[in-house]
Design goal:
The chain has 15 helices and 14 strands. The chain is an alpha/beta fold. Helix 2 packs antiparallel against helix 11 and helix 3 packs parallel to helix 11. Bound molecules: pyridoxal-5'-phosphate.
C-alpha cells in the first residue's frame, strides 16, 4: 500500500505565475473547459501540469499527484505507456503528416472494424465534435430530414451547442433544428420523434445506467420512425468494452463516434457505421480535413488498441473502479451520510455526488477536492480509472476518503463547510452528468 502523505497545501507559485500570463492572452484561459481553473479549488489546486507517468502527474511546481481525471478520458493506459510511446517514436522517424495517404489509415480502420460491432465502414478525424458533426450531417443526408434529437454532451459545434445556454453566435435556424430528450424516458423520446427527425444521437450511458432494454427500445423506436440511431461513444468506446457500449449492451447503432481512449492521448476520432449510410461520404457528404490521416495518432491508436485487447484492459478498469465505488459507499454508509453523498456510475467511470441537503453541492465538492489535493490526488468529482491505476492507487484514494469523509460529516453538521474552504469553490460543470433535457421539443 502507498503511504498516505500528511495533508499539506501544495506550493503552486509557478502555476499561479503562468496563469497570470495566460489571462492576458488566452480568452477563457483554457482550451478544454474541464481542465480550466474553474474546475479546481482556486488558491489550493495546481493549474498547470508538466509531466505524467502511469497514473501519476507532476505539476509545474514539482508536486506529485495520483490523477483521477486522466486527460479527461484519453489516458486509458496511463501516461507515457511504453508500447504506445514506442509506436509514436518509431513513426516519428518516418514522418508525421504526408502528401499522399498513409497505409496506417487502412491498418487502423481494419482493426477498428474487428473490435467495433457496427464498423462496416470507418473514417477518422481529430476531435469528438468533428465526428459527431459528421454523423449528424450523414444522417440528415441519408434521411432527407433535418431535425436532431440528442441526449448527452456532443461537442462545441453549432448543431449541439444550440441546446445549451452558451449558444452565442449560433444562427436561430440551427437552434431550431436540435432538441433534447431525457435519458431513460422512452415515452418522452416517442413523443419527440416525428417525420422530421433525421437522427437520435445519445451517449449510451454517462453515469446513470440504462434501464433494462432501454437502448434496444430506442433503436426500435428509431427504426419505426425511419430515424438513424447514433451512439456517441466518446467516453464508453474502448473502455466499457473493447467494442464500447455497443458490445457491452448488445445494441448496434447505425452510426457511432469515438475518440478519447482509442489512442492514449493522441488526437484521433473515429466515425463507424453501416456501409450503406457511410457510402454517402464517397461524394455527397463532404467530410475531409488536413490532419485526418496524421500518422503519429494512427500509430498510437494501433498500439493502444492492441494493448487494450492483449492486456484485457476493460476488465481491469472495471475491477479497480468498482472497488473504489463500493469503498466510497461503504464509508458513507458507515458514517450515516449516504443519504447525501454517494458514488455511482459504470464500474470503469464513476462520479461522486453531493445532495443539496448537505449544503451547496459545489462547496461540498470543493471541500472534498481540496482535501484530496492536499493528500496528493488530482480529482474533480469522477474516477476515470486507467490501466495504470493499480490496487496501490486505489488503496491510497480509499484511505484518503476514510480521513476526509468524517471531516466532511462534522463540517456539514456544524454548517461549517464554507468556513473550511481554503480557496475559492469550483464553478458548475458545463458538461452535465445527468438531466440532459435542456431543450425539449415535446408539447
Ligand atoms: C460524449 C462526448 N461527445 C463529444 C465530445 C466532444 O469531443 P471533443 O472535445 O474532442 O470535440 C465529448 C468531449 O468531451 C464527449 O464527452
Amino acid at each position: 500500500m502507498l503511504n498516505t502523505p500528511a495533508p499539506r497545501d501544495p506550493v503552486i507559485t509557478e502555476s499561479e505565475r503562468i496563469y497570470g500570463r495566460a489571462v492576458e492572452v488566452i480568452p477563457a484561459v483554457t482550451q478544454t473547459l474541464a481542465k480550466g481553473p474553474g474546475q479546481h479549488v482556486r488558491g489550493i489546486s495546481p493549474k498547470y501540469l508538466q509531466r505524467g507517468k502511469g497514473a501519476h502527474v507532476w505539476d509545474v511546481d514539482g508536486n506529485e499527484y495520483v490523477d483521477w481525471c486522466m486527460g479527461i478520458g484519453p489516458l486509458v493506459l496511463g501516461y507515457a505507456d511504453a508500447a504506445v510511446d514506442e509506436a509514436i517514436s518509431r513513426q516519428l522517424q518516418d514522418g508525421i503528416t504526408f502528401s499522399l495517404m498513409h497505409p496506417l489509415e487502412v491498418e487502423v480502420a481494419e482493426m477498428v472494424r474487428e473490435l467495433v460491432p457496427n464498423a462496416e465502414s470507418v473514417r477518422f478525424s481529430k476531435t469528438g465534435a468533428d465526428v459527431t458533426s459528421a454523423a449528424v450531417r450523414l444522417a440528415r443526408a441519408f434521411t432527407g430530414r433535418e431535425h436532431v434529437l440528442c441526449c448527452g454532451y456532443h461537442g462545441w459545434h453549432d448543431w449541439y451547442i444550440a441546446t445549451t445556454d452558451r449558444r452565442g453566435g449560433v444562427p436561430e435556424a440551427v437552434v431550431e433544428e436540435t432538441s433534447t430528450f431525457p435519458y431513460n424516458d422512452l415515452d418522452a423520446l416517442a413523443r419527440s420523434l416525428g417525420p422530421e427527425t433525421a437522427c437520435v444521437i445519445l451517449e449510451p450511458v454517462v453515469f446513470e445506467a440504462p434501464q433494462p432494454g432501454f437502448l434496444a427500445q430506442v433503436q426500435s423506436l428509431c427504426r419505426q420512425n425511419g430515424t438513424l440511431l447514433v451512439f456517441d461513444e466518446m467516453w464508453t468506446g474502448f473502455r466499457l468494452a473493447l467494442g464500447g457500449a455497443q458490445e457491452f449492451f448488445g445494441v448496434s447503432p447505425d452510426l457511432a463516434t469515438y475518440s478519447k481512449a482509442i489512442a492514449n492521448g493522441m488526437p484521433l476520432s473515429v466515425l463507424t457505421g453501416r456501409r450503406d449510410v457511410m457510402r454517402l461520404l464517397d461524394r455527397d457528404v463532404f467530410f475531409f480535413t488536413t490532419f485526418g490521416g496524421e500518422a503519429l495518432s494512427l500509430a498510437a491508436a494501433l498500439a493502444c488498441m492492441r494493448a487494450l485487447r492483449d492486456r484485457n484492459v476493460p476488465a481491469r478498469l472495471a475491477r479497480v473502479g468498482k472497488r473504489i465505488r463500493d469503498a466510497y459507499n461503504r464509508i458513507a454508509e458507515s458514517l450515516g451520510i449516504a443519504a447525501w453523498t454517494r458514488c455511482f456510475g459504470m464500474d470503469c467511470r464513476t462520479i461522486v455526488t453531493f445532495d443539496a441537503a448537505a449544503g451547496d453541492p459545489l462547496v461540498t465538492r470543493s471541500f472534498v477536492q481540496q482535501e484530496l489535493v492536499r493528500r496528493g490526488h488530482l480529482w474533480s468529482g469522477t474516477h476515470t480509472v486507467s490501466f495504470a491505476h493499480g490496487e496501490a492507487e486505489a488503496d491510497r484514494l480509499i484511505a484518503a476518503y476514510e480521513e476526509i469523509l468524517p471531516e466532511l460529516k462534522s463540517a456539514v453538521e456544524k454548517g461549517d463547510v464554507p468556513g473550511r474552504l481554503r480557496g475559492e469553490p469550483v464553478e458548475p460543470v458545463f458538461r452535465r452528468a445527468s438531466n440532459f433535457d435542456t431543450k425539449p421539443c415535446r408539447t
